[in-house]
Specification:
The chain is 42% helix and 22% strand. It is an alpha/beta fold. Strands 1, 2, 5, 6, 7, 8, 9, 10 and 11 form a 9-stranded mixed β-sheet that branches.
Length: 279
């Protein structure tokens, strides 16, 4: 029994060493999450990661949404698989300068639900951070599921020097209500809070170019003012953002000059200004 306990302690120590060694090669680590689903959090995370990669930074994107992993779909790599080597799990090179890891890349059926309790999810996230051969990265963008449950909690506890959290919301009051909880979650865990990204901030009409406030107006700004946190940007709803995401072509690389792309770039600028990642 004593030997079993001793072996377990040694294994935990070895895991911590590997985790520290892996994270030490990543200059900046940011988590993107939201208070509720359906606000376009993954769309924002994917396009931020792609924008950073397009600027020449070495970027990784980690999908810790265990029950609904969508990064592989949005990057057009759903048919590819993670492989193990003597150096660990090799991430998928989704685009030049952009590596991706997601549970969706393990080859499970796309219709098979993941029915896991918290401890198993925490183990999986630890493995993604410890055993994936990320190499030297300027940025690691972590896409977390909605809410303040096991996944974001595991990330924030495992990455003790996490550089910051972004909360994505829509202007709708219900979304803002839940986003306030997400902001307080980050503050409670003493994670540096970068700011709010208001997504779907009005629809750009494809016919007249006018703006329609489908989900209300300036809800993100009101929450930012009330909680005294920055509003990083207001990204309008562009109908092509949906079609490009579904086809696995990140919007930021296809519609560089659109109003939505420019809004995303402003958020990227803010991340770069806070980080230490250099080309």
């Amino acid at each position: 029994m004593e030997k079993i306990k001793s072996d377990k302690v040694e294994e935990q120590i070895e895991q911590e060493k590997r985790l520290s060694a892996c994270l030490a090669r990543i200059k900046n680590k940011f988590i993107v999450f939201s208070g509720k689903g359906g606000v376009g959090k993954t769309t924002v995370a994917v396009n931020l990661a792609c924008d950073l990669a397009m600027r020449g930074y070495q970027v990784g994107i980690l999908d810790v949404d265990i029950h609904g992993p969508n990064i592989a779909k949005m990057l057009g790599i759903s048919d590819r698989r993670l492989m193990g080597t003597d150096k660990g799990i090799e991430p998928i090179l989704a685009l030049p300068n952009l590596k991706a890891v997601s549970l969706a890349l393990l080859g499970n059926s796309k219709d098979q639900p993941v029915i896991w309790r918290g401890p198993l999810k925490a183990i999986t996230i630890r493995q993604f951070l410890t055993d994936v051969n990320w190499g030297d990265l300027d940025y690691l963008i972590i896409d977390s599921p909605p809410g303040t449950g096991d996944e974001p909690l595991s990330v924030c506890q495992l990455i003790k020097d996490i550089d910051g959290a972004l909360v994505v919301t829509t202007p709708q009051e219900v979304a803002i209500l839940d986003s306030r909880k997400a902001i307080c979650f980050a503050k409670e865990l003493k994670v540096p809070f970068i700011g709010i990204v208001e997504n779907m901030s009005g629809l750009i009409c494809p016919y007249c170019g006018g703006k329609i406030d489908l989900f209300g107006k300036d809800g993100g700004q009101a929450a930012a003012d009330d909680l005294k946190v920055p509003l990083l940007g207001q990204i309008p709803l562009d109908v092509e953002m949906v079609s490009y995401g579904d086809s696995g072509k990140p919007f930021i690389g296809q519609r560089k000059n659109s109003e939505a792309a420019q809004a995303i770039k402003k958020v990227t600028d803010r991340i770069i200004s806070l980080g230490s990642g250099k080309k």
